[in-house]
Design a protein that fits this description.
single chain, alpha/beta, UDP N-Acetylglucosamine Acyltransferase, domain 1, 5-stranded parallel beta sheet, 14% helix
Amino acid sequence: METKLSKFRNASYAPGRRFLTRSIWFVTNVLFVLNPLNPFSQLRAILLKMLGGKIGQGVVLKPSINIKYPWNLEIGDNSWIGESVLFDSLDKISIGSNVCISQGAYLCTGNHDYTKEAFDLIVRPIVIEDGVWVGAKAVICPGVTLRSHSVITAGSVVTKDTEPYGIYQGNPAQYIRKRVIAD
């Protein structure tokens, strides 16, 4: 058997919201959220909330972030989202409080079933618990839960759930040691 992308159908996936809402979001994202010329974190937060995102108090949203569907994004209080973070939010992305997601990180909730001829779409949520730090250019794969206060080092690829306070590095990310937070 061979892969036949001409047979790919996405009928079982519904991105949520009507076409008009998705279109309004596309334009809003390009003009105000993705746009590096907009320095206003609060404006980005307000626009995300208006289109269904759940954004906590004190959230910092740096320029050039890209969010596929804001209604699938939830960010807790006092979390920081760095420049050029990509939220491929085909499914829910839940981010706790006091989380730092560094520049260029990629949170991907969608993938494909390479064992199927039609390369079927698979979507699974991502959960990031309180106090987690996702390093620059790290990749978080579909269905992963980053447990409380875990650290994902720069450039790592996380394909499995982490342990609380664990530090993970590499591709695929492996446990390195325990995180200790001093006063």
